[in-house]
Amino acid sequence: xxxxxWAPSRLPPAFSHSFSRGSGTERCYWxxxxxxxxxxxxxxxxxxxxxxxxxxxxPGFGEASPEAKAARNLQNFFTYIAVKIVLAQLESYNPxxxxxxxxxISRNSLNDGDKFCGRLMRESSRHQGLALRILEVRSAYxxxxxxxxxxxxxxxxxVDESNTRLMRDYVLETSHMENEG
Amino acid sequence: xxxxxWAPSRLPPAFSHSFSRGSGTERCYWxxxxxxxxxxxxxxxxxxxxxxxxxxxxPGFGEASPEAKAARNLQNFFTYIAVKIVLAQLESYNPxxxxxxxxxISRNSLNDGDKFCGRLMRESSRHQGLALRILEVRSAYxxxxxxxxxxxxxxxxxVDESNTRLMRDYVLETSHMENEG
Lengths: 181, 181
Known about the structure:
homodimer, 6 helices, 66% helix, photosynthesis (chains A, B), Chaperonin_RcbX (chains A, B), protein folding chaperone (chains A, B)
């Protein structure tokens, strides 16, 4: 399926094709005036509006979606956070378990949270208890403690601030070069 | 500040100390029965409940918060998505710009989105146009197209499913070994 966003006017292969919004595999954004004229005409004939996809086409995610990829990364992040929480708890009241977990972390990467927990479970019966605690903490943390609304706000703010900073730095740099030249 | 979650009963250093919820630098969860008894007694005396922090303590984030770290990672992810969107648009109607961007990507890592865009801006005037488009797309995508509610649901689901799978696999593995032994 071809999509247009900042692209020249382009007619869709089939005007009333279905969109798979839920899975996020195919996304498009029809902005062409021709499409709007066609849509208006179709509405006049049929009495209802056809379903419309207002999203930009994101290629390369196959059966998954960008949200699924981001969720998978967040899952690994929650495992990392859970390990930090459990370590902080153990440090004060169970230094032996703390040392054991620290030693295990020094030998095993935390990049893949599930692999880490799987290996921790199979290390020894004591490690197994720690792994079960990490699993429970990551679930509780993601559902209760993590501030999802705050994440959204911070991401919007960061993107806006970074965009402004990048453009300002470039303008300052080039105007400085022009003044020197 | 010491915190307890699954930890033995522990009295806080000061019962009515303030909590920095907004910044997320210090988080704790008082579960001790002693605390609840003290809280009940204090409520009976003062007529109101003291402010209570229901979060687990996450160390190691300094002035930032886990949400800020996750938002920074998402920002890089949005830059990666924006590059994919722009490439898909260019491929069909501007093959020359597509090749130029692809060549630039082969030489520059996309891990740090801001660094990538900063370098792209300074490559040439044509590349500068592409960089500005990427900045605009990542902002539009994060605000309009990215399904934040879906991200949350998927993350919950993935954590739950992974926890179940890890425990089931371990139980199956050990019961198999026990049966053999």
